[in-house]
Amino acid sequence: MTDLSISPQERALLAQKNLEKFWLSRLRKQDPIARIGYGLWCKSADDLKREIILGDAEYWAHKGFPYWEFMARSTVVNISVGLQKAGFKGTVAEMRMKVREVGLEVAWHHAMSVERDYKKKLGTEPGLLSKKQISKYHHIAFSLFGIPPDSYGGTWFGAVPDNWELELYGNLYCHDCDTSD
Amino acid sequence: MKALTYLLIGILSLSACTSQNATSIDNAGSFLCIPPEYAVFIGETGTSSAEFDSQGGGYNVSIFLNQNTVSQLVPEYKSETNIGGRVRKHALYITLSPSEEINQAVPDAPTKDLLDGEMQLLAVKADTFSWQVIQKTAKNQQHWGTCADLPTEPKSFRCLRDLIIEGLGLTYPISQENLHVYPAIDALLQEKVAQWRCASSGIPIEQQL
Q1: Domain span at residue A163?
Q2: In this structure, is residue A177 part of a structural domain?
Q3: Which residues on B lie below 8 Å from A71 (Cβ)?
Q4: Which run of H or E residues covers position B63?
Q5: Number of domains composing chain B
Q6: Whole-number Cα distances in Å, A56 to A27, A62, A95, B49
Q7: CB-based burial of residue B141 (10 Å sphere; 0-12 exposed, 13-18 middle, 19+ buried)?
Q8: pLDDT confidence of residue B209
Q9: Residue B30: inside a domain, yes or no?
């Protein structure tokens, strides 16, 4: 059984706000939510493809890059729509920066939940979260930005956005974009 | 009618909830009826969940009080903070669990003051992401919650306060800037839980989803 506790390295990565390496570390431990976390914050689409191709097919639910790429893109869109509902207005670059801030809070709350679960030996495997725990910490992280809880649609990846939302915000999902876009 | 107008949380053990011998009067006051405007349901929809833990995480409903409501009810509560340009809103999102899921033993370990000793909160030193906080009372020490540093400049931290009210575990986030008003938040929640106890038997939350 993999040790799912938050390692000193992961703690340091969070302190450095290094989301890519934090989620990569979680991915290597087969933390389920890391498939989205890494998909969101990896440096390039090729990095995500490589992890899926070389990784354990069962961990990736026997689904390929298009599926996980869509999940990550949908998450960005949901957060953007939530920020808009909360009254945030800004340029594309400002929206990207805000989405990243949300990402940092989500990662912090993930670490907090994992550690509480691990120390209190909740559930069947210490450090492995239930969908309920994941929903709750997303609600808390989102509330820090005024994003309503229903933006996290009751699934572990968030609600599937409408077509117009994907069209409007889909291009915010971009690994190497210049933030001045 | 009450079942239609309120959201109900069973806080009895499952056996008590499902006991055929339990009468209405037995259950009186044992459920929480949260007005819909303060309730957030935790859905369980989505794709295959085999890879996630099937257990843990408490009840399927949380309480949500927006930051304006809290600041009206709790004097000195900061509904918004700005640490180094990092603006955050502080609504109160309260998760609900059986008390045994949130309670934690008080370790026999060296401690340090968390806030000038005024709050009688002590941080248990640990080389981990988060650290336990214990509360010193006149008689003993008890678990208060857990805190962790935030990646901010200047340095700051945030906590998850664990509060137990008659077997119900309530956990809420609280920033360092609001730590001094936690007794007032606790009192507010005590009051809400007392107000929201169902007057008669309730429907276990499993039947509400």
Answers
A1: 10-172
A2: no
A3: none
A4: strand B61-65
A5: 1
A6: 11, 9, 34, 17
A7: middle
A8: 34
A9: yes
Nearest CB partner across the interface for B56, out of A10, A111, A123:
A123
Question: Dihedrals φ, ψ of A159, to 5°?
Answer: -70, 150
What whole-number distance in Å separates Cα of residue B32 and Cα of residue B35? 10
Residue A3 in domain = no
d(Cα B121, Cα B143) in Å, to the nearest integer? 10
Residues B6, A50: Cα–Cα separation, whole Å:
50
Low-confidence stretches of chain A (pLDDT beneath 50): 154-158, 178-181
Which of A11, A29, A136 to substitute to test the interface with B, most B CBs within 10 Å? A136
Helix axes A92-120, A131-143, angle to 10 degrees: 140
Inter-chain touch A131–B52, beta carbons under 8 Å? yes
How many Cβ atoms sit within 10 Å of the Cβ of residue B65? 22
Does the residue B52 lie in any domain? no
Q: Which of A96, A87, A40 is nearest to A68 (CA)?
A: A40
Cβ-proximal residues to A107 (8 Å cutoff; 6+ apart), any chain: A14, A19, A22, A23, A37
- Structure letter (DSSP) for residue A121: T
- Please write the tens of the pLDDT for every residue from B82-103: 999 999 999 999 999 999 999 9
User: From CA B118, how far away is CA B200, in angstroms rounded?
Assistant: 41
Q: Which residues of A touch B150 (CB under 8 A)?
A: 108
Residue B126 within any structural domain of the chain: yes
Which domain range does residue B148 map to?
2-42+58-208
Question: How many CB contacts within 8 angstroms connect chain A with chain B?
Answer: 135
Domain count of the fold of chain A: 1
